[in-house]
Amino acid sequence: MTEYNAILEKSKRFAVRIVKLYRYLDKTKVPRALSDQILRSGTSIGANAAEAHLAPSSTDFYCKLGISLKEAKETEYWLYVLHGADFIDGRSYESINDDCVEILKILTAILKNRPNRTGKG
Predict the structure, then answer these.
(1) What's the predicted TM-score (pTM) here?
(2) Which pLDDT band holds residue 113 (cuts at 50, 70, 90)?
(3) Which residues contact 36 (CB under 8 A, 6 or more apart)?
(4) Structural domain boundaries in the chain
(5) Are 6 and 105 in contact (CB under 8 A)?
(6) Average pLDDT, the chain
(7) What does the pLDDT look like over 37-57, one tens digit per residue?
(8) Which PANTHER family does this chain map to (predicted)?
(9) How far apart are the first and last CA of the chain?
């Protein structure tokens, strides 16, 4: 399960970047609601992926990864908003957003390749 191991590592590193971004935003005039949103969604990606590791069933495993995917998409949205509102410069935005997009691609690949729930094909 190479993709799963990759998502665990990448989402942990991404969470650290999000926490650092949050600390930076906290020192600026970013509305607290925005910085709280990016912190919550950006760190939730890895938390749900880690939780999937001990899932009691494959259904629960894929459900947790599905939540990670939704949180990654939400994080991508908040990054866009923060950049569009000029709270994150272009270079910083591109760097962290590229990581987010990579996480989205990995999660999508894992979920796309999941076994059929009905057991047919």
Answers:
(1) 0.91
(2) confident
(3) none
(4) 2-112
(5) no
(6) 93
(7) 999 999 999 999 999 989 999
(8) FOUR HELIX BUNDLE PROTEIN
(9) 20
E strand or H helix that includes residue 119: none
Mean pLDDT of 89-103: 97
d(CA 40, CA 24): 15
Q: Which CATH architecture best describes the domain 2-112?
A: Up-down Bundle (1.20)
Asked if residues 68 and 49 have their Cβ atoms less than 8 Å apart, the reply is: yes
Q: Report which of 49, 13, 19 is spatially closest to residue 36, judged by C-alpha positions.
A: 19
CB 34 within 8 A of CB 87: yes
Q: Which amino acid is at 78?
A: W
Name the DSSP letter for residue 115. P
